[in-house]
Amino acid sequence: MNGGGLQLECECDEGGIGDLCQNQCCLQCAEHGKCRQYINGPEYCYCEYDYEGQFCERKIIIEGQKKDTWYLWVVGVCAGVLGLLILALVIIPYWMWHNRVTVIMKIVHYFQPYEDDDEKTWDAFVSYKSADVDQNFVLHTLFPKLEKELGFTLCMHFRDFLPGETIANNIINAVNNSRRTILILTPRYIESEFTRFEYQVAQHEMLKRKHRIIPVLLEDISDSMSSMDPNLRQIIKSVTYIEYPGSDATEKKLNTFWKRMALSMPKTRSTEEHQKLLDNNNKTSDNNSVNAISVNGEVSVSNHKRETEMTSFTNGGITPIDNSEINVKIIEETSVASKNLKNNIDGELCNKAFIDD
């Protein structure tokens, strides 16, 4: 008690109690509590406003705070699931499409509309440099596979360019009347002035009419990037190229390359019908068995099997679609053999009858 009649109270340090903080508290209060003592009473832990318990060890959770915490957990889980869905449905498929993974290409190709009704003449125009390596690949590998075997129609320099027409007009006509433009990329192609106009026209059509370009990397062009035309560089950056593994590559790699090429080509009804016919012919042409039935049942040639190997040639030749011609030839040859055999037997019977007489 001071002179003014006011009562003073001592604020004790941690662990001190009593009027003059002369005693030591025996309670072990938690971090958010302080030891106190009632007047002439027991000791107790004085807790901060949001803690409770004998030693102030429990935090007080308001009911509204519980709901807010639950809501945040729900939002966090939903955001995580949404992120995974975006990753699975958008980012991963885009990456697979950009890298030309055949699985996603098949799915996209399945849902694509047919392109038969666009009044285009060819499925693809092939742009390449008339050098030995480039031309050999186009004429003896690409052209036979895509057109002769898979049934796509290609616009080729040597066959479809109009005589007497300017080169520029022929190129413009070829690109405008083709659904795709295939670029055979080599260092020689990049340095050629003749091919430059071709891919420039193709790029113009790509921007104007969504004309699609299929770059095929036949050889490494990394050393030619510095001298590459800006238009071609832009095409390579915006359109993923398909790398040819080489003629000496494994069969698996070659099959993957041709699958990517076929799935990059237009989806047309005629091509799908050709593929079905090709599959049926491949199943029936593995083992062709022909039985020659004799005339009047006197001669029988049975169990005569011929295996026909279907071979595609660049310049004409037999293709899988010519299977009917092969069957006709086999039957005709067998019929002739049967007739000759019958005539020989008849002749021997006549000679025998003459001798007996």
From TrEMBL:
TIR domain sequence ranges: 120-265
GO cellular component: plasma membrane
A UniProt-annotated Pfam family: TIR
Any GO BP annotation: signal transduction
Subcellular location: Membrane
Annotated PROSITE patterns: EGF_1, TIR
Gene3D superfamilies reported for this sequence: Toll/interleukin-1 receptor homology (TIR) domain
Family matches, as InterPro entries: EGF (IPR000742), TIR_dom (IPR000157), Toll_tir_struct_dom_sf (IPR035897)
Domain of life the protein comes from: Eukaryota
MF (Gene Ontology): signaling receptor activity
Transmembrane segments: 70-97
Keywords for this protein: Membrane, Signal, Transmembrane, Transmembrane helix
Name of the molecule in the record: Protein toll
Organism: Mizuhopecten yessoensis (Japanese scallop)
Top-level taxonomy: Eukaryota, Metazoa, Spiralia, Lophotrochozoa, Mollusca
